[in-house]
Design a protein that fits this description.
Largest sheet: none
Radius of gyration: 23 Å
Structural class: mainly alpha
Oligomer: single chain
Low-confidence stretches: 1-25
Number of helices: 11
Number of domains: 2
């Protein structure tokens, strides 16, 4: 448990074309940089990824961080573990799940440059506030287990609502999140709301949760 993101028409057109022309090399540079990294050629990868990172490419930040944190920074380049972690944080805040996972793995190692649990929760809360269902689900679990936060049904509810409101195609556990909300509103200790329980149970059933479908059927029988 402990281990446990307008100008005139002519001028606008010129900006679009100029932007497209400049974006292509950046995208190509990112792709080539990642390919070089995966091939073990960090000397080639570094300048390509560094340029893409300067252009705002999130993946580039993550891969640069990998190079730094793995001790593979080319000679003459900055080999700063704390900078590597900072790049991972930037990527994670922008919605890069791989960066978030790497940060969590680093946290568990308790190294000098490892992010703290408070750092991780701050990133997760920022992403969840933006409507990220994956991270919202993770936060709900924290409030359920007391992982870095006080156990709180209100905290669980807040983040479960974000997760449950996502389309199942985007977040497959949306139905499960809705069912947990049904349970909390029906059986919770902090506050009970039968209407909310039925509503979330219906959402869960619509999203394919068999348990919710059974509960709704029983409720219908009792009311009938």
């Amino acid at each position: 448990m402990k281990n446990r993101i307008l100008v005139s028409f002519a001028a606008a057109l010129s900006l679009v074309f100029a932007g497209g022309a400049s974006a292509q090399p950046s995208a190509s540079g990112l792709t080539d940089g990642i390919a070089a990294y995966r091939a073990g050629d960090v000397e080639t990868a570094w300048p390509l990824l560094a340029a893409a990172s300067e252009d705002g490419a999130i993946k580039a930040k993550r891969y640069l961080a990998y190079i730094m944190l793995d001790g593979e920074t080319p000679k003459g380049r900055e080999a700063d573990l704390f900078k590597g972690v900072a790049l991972l944080k930037e990527a994670a805040l922008a919605g890069d799940y791989a960066a978030l996972i790497r940060l969590e793995n680093l946290r568990r190692k308790h190294l000098a440059h490892s992010p703290s649990l408070d750092d991780m929760i701050a990133i997760e809360e920022a992403r969840a506030e933006e409507g990220d269902p994956v991270v919202a689900w993770r936060l709900a679990k924290r409030f359920e287990m007391g992982d870095g936060v006080e156990v709180s049904e209100a905290g669980m509810t807040k983040w479960l609502e974000v997760a449950a409101s996502a389309e199942p195609a985007r977040f497959p556990k949306a139905g499960e999140a809705a069912y947990r909300l049904c349970e909390l509103n029906a059986l919770g200790r902090e506050a009970k709301d039968p209407d909310a329980a039925r509503r979330w149970c219906a959402v869960a059933a619509e999203n394919g949760h068999m348990g919710a479908a059974i509960v709704l059927k029983r409720l219908a029988q009792l009311q009938g």
